[in-house]
Structure of Cysteine synthase:
Amino acid sequence: MSHSILDQIGNTPLVKSMVLNTNPNVTLYFKMEGDNPGGSVKDRAAFNMIKSALERGEIDQNSKLIEATSGNTGIALAMIAGIYQLDIELVMPENATIERVQTMKAYGAKVTLHPDGIEGARDYATDKVEKEGYFSFNQFANEDNWKAHYKTTGPEIWADTDGKVTHFVSSMGTTGTIMGTSTYLKEQSKNVQIVGVQPTDGSSIPGIRKWPKEYLPAIFDASKVDRVMEVSTEQARAMARRLAREEGIFSGMSSGGATTAALKLASELESGVIVSIICDRGDRYLSSDLFE
């Protein structure tokens, strides 16, 4: 039987926490998004954004595509754009790990590093769209971002927990994952609690942001998040290392942040079934000091 690599996006496994969760009345599952072919949860959104734009005739193989990204969305877009023979320029903060840059280039994308962080990268991409005729998917305002999770992530979690999920925990970056999954799960049961994770003031965690008001993703709807929990850089780093050493789950810092929040939540509950997103794989952080 022949399958496209695109058919391998989604249907990622749920893995039960066997060590870190110590509340016997709470089950904590990790949703292993690093199992996607591009190595992160962003494969879902990237595929839906490109496929939908092609179907609507907004882009074709002559289009000049550009996107600002902190990393994982860029890798996913580079992979999928290559399959569709689309040219894309990806703009990243200049402190991005070399693994991310090299992976995007391996898939055929042009990579531009910007000195002013993700906000600067977003401004650069917007300028190219307005002045040079580029097309941007603008993941921060693209309905196809969150709809990818409404169509896939939410239904998978509901089915794989037999409708028993009580809490969903997700780091918040573009907020597509939490918006789409929340929308679906709340349609199944209004009692499912949606928990968003963001950094404490002064903390820097790749993939998780506390956005300034002027950069707040347009797809974000605060009413779809029941609780926001904050984690520090130190907590996220330490938990990423613990996930690898104690659970055998090799992931990045944003997954450490989400797990920190999920474990705090588990310690507070009398009973429940928590699903927490493991956003990506740890191998794209090996050149950093995350695991030292």
In short: The chain has a mean pLDDT of 95. The chain has nine helices and ten strands. Strands lie at 14-16, 26-32, 64-68, 87-93, 110-114, 135-136, 167-171, 193-199, 227-231, 272-278. The CA atoms of residues 119 and 215 lie 7 Å apart.
